């Protein structure tokens, strides 16, 4: 993992990329809270939220062909949403010959629309914020230093774990394994266990190396170690406009409900 990149980071030069990371994190949190707080029975607020996200993508020069494949991470939640209209009780309506629960349909709609908007907003932050910006940003937001250090190490070693998984998969295939065959489930489970043990051993070696270099259990203040300058008031005001617009829309939805 070089130059502070991570798998979801999209290197580019835009106003969104140049915005300090702590501002983008707060903007994401406020935006997501506004989306979650919006009554699911209202449709127009979610269209406005989607427009805000798409406008941010245009400003950050993030193409749809880059975003859409990465949004498949929410697929398990969409499967749950599809099942809710069949599993919920209460009043039922006929849709294409199927008896569906009204409460289940509303619940499914809420999961789909709010989950999709949340994932899209999170991907926007990930695509425009490099891994090197996160430690200082989290420290400036008063996140405990231990939590920040754990997050930094996780980002640092996630690529190594992915490479290890790829090597183990190639080794199995070279020995006649067929990853898609059902009878190979035991071998896959064994590989997962071996990966866990290797990861645990790697963590112990990293911790021992940290101790040998003087680590005493106290995490340093990452906001003052080679960090970029703090966000100015003008940057806060401009960058928080999408979040402020989302809050206004959420409040308006409750007032007009």
What does this structure look like?
- By secondary structure, the protein is mainly α.
- It has 11 helices and 2 strands; from the N terminus they run αααααββαααααα.
- A two-stranded antiparallel ribbon has the order 1-2.
- The longest helix is centred in the middle third of the chain and has 30 residues, at 145-174.
- It is found in: Cell membrane.
Notable features of this structure?
257 residues, mainly alpha, two-stranded antiparallel sheet, 11 helices, globular, ABC/ECF_trnsptr_transmembrane, Cobalt ECF transporter T component CbiQ, transmembrane helix
Question: How would the blueprint of this fold be written?
Answer:
Elements: H1 15-18, H2 21-37, H3 44-60, H4 64-70, H5 75-87, E1 92-95, E2 98-101, H6 102-128, H7 134-140, H8 145-174, H9 185-212, H10 233-239, H11 241-256
Antiparallel strand pairs: 1-2
Helix pairs in contact: 2-6, 2-7, 2-11, 3-6, 3-11, 5-6, 7-8
Keywords: Cell membrane, Membrane, Transmembrane, Transmembrane helix
Transmembrane segments: 21-37, 43-60, 67-86, 106-126, 138-158, 236-255
Protein name: Cobalt ECF transporter T component CbiQ
């Amino acid at each position: 993992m070089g130059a502070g990149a991570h798998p979801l980071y999209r290197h580019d030069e835009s106003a969104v990329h140049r915005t300090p990371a702590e501002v983008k994190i707060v903007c994401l949190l406020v935006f997501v809270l506004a989306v979650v707080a919006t009554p699911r029975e209202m449709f127009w607020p979610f269209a406005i939220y989607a427009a805000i996200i798409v406008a941010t993508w245009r400003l950050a020069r993030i193409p749809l062909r880059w975003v859409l494949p990465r949004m498949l991470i929410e697929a398990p939640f969409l499967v749950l949403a599809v099942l809710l209209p069949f599993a919920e009780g209460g009043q039922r309506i006929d849709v294409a010959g199927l008896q569906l629960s009204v409460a289940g349909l509303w619940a499914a709609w809420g999961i789909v629309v709010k989950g999709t908007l949340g994932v899209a907003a999170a991907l926007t932050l990930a695509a425009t914020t490099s891994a090197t910006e996160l430690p200082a940003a989290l420290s400036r937001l008063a996140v405990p230093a231990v939590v920040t250090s754990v997050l930094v190490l996780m980002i640092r070693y996630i690529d190594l774990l992915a490479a290890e998984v790829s090597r183990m998969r190639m080794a199995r295939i070279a020995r006649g394994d067929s990853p898609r065959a059902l009878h190979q489930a035991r071998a896959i489970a064994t590989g997962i266990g071996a990966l866990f043990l290797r990861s645990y051993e790697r963590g112990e070696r990293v911790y021992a190396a940290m101790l040998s270099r003087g680590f005493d259990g106290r995490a340093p203040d990452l906001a003052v170690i080679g960090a970029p300058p703090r966000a100015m008031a003008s940057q806060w005001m401009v960058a928080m406009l999408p979040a402020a617009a989302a809050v206004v829309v959420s409040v308006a939805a409750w007032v007009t409900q």
